[in-house]
Amino acid sequence: MRKYPRNVLIATLASLLTDISSEMVVYLLPLFLSAVLNTPVTFIGLIEGVAETTSSLSKLFSGYFSDQLRTRKWFTVVGYGLSTLAKISLAIAGSWQAVFGARFADRLGKGIRTAPRDALIAESVDEKIRGAAFGFHRAGDTFGAFIGVGIAALVIFLTQQQSSLLTRQTFDTIVLISLIPAVIAVVVLIVGLREIKPTKLQALPSFSLRGFDGRFKFFLLVVGIFTLGNSADAFIVLRAQDRGASVLVTLLMVMGFNLVYTLLAQPLGKLSDKVGRQRLLIIGWVVYAVVYLGFALSPNVLTIGVLWAGYGVYYALTEGAAKAFIADLVPSEKRGTAYGLYNAVVGLLALPASVIAGLLWQSFGAGVPFVFGAALALTAAVLFGTQFKVSQSK
């Protein structure tokens, strides 16, 4: 394994532990809301959309202030700590409103930590291996998700083999177990993470796009188009249930997704260092479109499982490459703000994306939101491909 700097290793370990915690719960939330709290699908989409919007908008502010205050570490620590505290409230949630509050706090914590942490990773590693480093971080993060979903699946297997629907007792048990790795992650960050200050203070305190590379602005535009069709993964969970998947089978499919993502994230991140980030992003969006069309047309549970593995390929192609691409375009003193702007675009459109998906599902059928997402992904790929050809010809 390539030797990465201390901050990359610590951030990866913390992400691994936190994703063990988070992924034990997140894929069960739509099932908990639906089966235990009898929440309509439209409200589930609203909860997920608002949660992701909260996360992404707070990334904008935390990234900006981490540039202004020239500190990354403590934004990261506070963000992970808040998400840990938010999980406690899930164990006592008795309504969809209570779940909404817990998801809001959890995603706020994610928003506070993500942009400063990504900026810290970018500043801790040589630009020649930046893609590989972000891919390594994503691999660790997703391996944690694989472990977390595996633990949740084991608890479900041991506690409710005879029930195809999630029970309240099982959900509460899983939430309490999830607190253990979350607390350890916060301790690891406090002890192990080292501060790296940006090279200089940003001249004009501003959230605007002024002064950023034109390619970065165009990238945000294309990401926005893609995101409008990228509804919450809760709809994939509901699609699997719609096709007859039990809670346990659904979690096994999520494990398959995370395993594929884990195995491919670092190699594909490294590949982006060699062949270019744009090429991998275009391929990734095309893969997404194919997978989402598959979800729309899927006739059975087996097909859903195969497609979910393909969904892992999309993530491995794009997540590390996108973050490395931003670092390539933006100087050190503006990276926190740049990551914040990127996540703000994603977050502002996460809410309408999930609300639109919920309305399309209820009005026209379960397959229609996935067709919509596939169409916008192909649009984004074509636009970005056109810009890519122009830049290559210069």
Helix-strand makeup class:
mainly alpha
Helix-strand topology string? HHHHHHHHHHHHHH
Shape: globular
Q: What is Rg?
A: 20 Å
Low-confidence runs (pLDDT<50, min 5 residues)? none
Mean pLDDT: 85
Span from first to last CA?
37 Å
* Number of continuous helical runs: 14
Q: What helical percentage do the residues reach?
A: over 70%
> Describe the biggest sheet?
none
The number of E-state strands comes to: 0
The share of residues in extended strands comes to under 5%
SSE layout and pairing:
Elements: H1 6-26, H2 29-36, H3 41-68, H4 73-90, H5 96-124, H6 130-159, H7 168-192, H8 214-228, H9 234-242, H10 247-275, H11 277-297, H12 301-329, H13 335-364, H14 368-393
Helix pairs in contact: 1-5, 1-6, 1-7, 3-5, 3-13, 4-5, 4-7, 5-13, 6-7, 6-10, 6-12, 8-13, 8-14, 9-12, 10-11, 10-12, 11-12, 11-14, 13-14
Keywords:
mainly alpha; 394 residues; single chain
Characterize the structure shown.
This protein has 14 helices and no strands. The chain is an all-alpha fold and 394 residues long. It starts with 5 loop residues before the first helix and ends with a helix. The mean pLDDT is 85.
